[in-house]
Amino acid sequence: MHFVQLMKASGEANEAKVEGNKLFVDGKYEEALSQYEHALQVAPDMPSSVEIRSICHSNRAVCFLKLGNYENTIKECTKALELNPAYVKALVRRGEAHEKLEHFEEAIADMKKILEIDPSNDQARKAIRRLEPLAAVKREKMKEEMIAKLKEMGNSVLGRFGMSVDNFKAVKDPNTGSYSISMER
User: Fold this and answer.
1) CATH of span 3-158
2) Helix (H) or strand (E) holding 182
3) pTM of the predicted model as reported, rounded to 2 decimal places
4) pLDDT in tens, 1-55
5) How far is CA 135 from CA 14, 65, 77, 78, 174, in A?
């Protein structure tokens, strides 16, 4: 790209971003999304444009967040973070979207990344404290569902032999946390 074209493209991208910001403030999220998209289309894919491109992706993310479209919020934040891995705002927004979708582990991971970048970030620390128990409950629920599915599968196989999973007893070893299975008649 020629230098003059580059400067023109960068200017156009910046104008679109500014216009997008105004629309966002007015609550016109769909229109703001189009402006940020336009900025991304005209901003040259070069090191000098990394900042504006990452900002536009992050701003698109917050529009999607306001529209309740959390999957797209995550996609846009991820694009912003590919361009700028230390972009705290994008991590906050992605964490928020993950939480809305009950992806608690992913939300915690984003909050931990924020603390790596900014150890004094209290918001992230509080979020981790709030999310840890939710993640634990979800893990437990998933474990129970998995066990129920395994029992169901086991019963359908064992049924052919006139047995059920109730014929087996699982004993947890307190030292290793692993289970041993014994058969009961």
Assistant:
1) 1.25.40.10
2) strand 179-183
3) 0.76
4) 566 566 677 788 999 999 999 999 999 999 999 999 999 998 877 778 899 999 9
5) 40, 21, 22, 22, 23
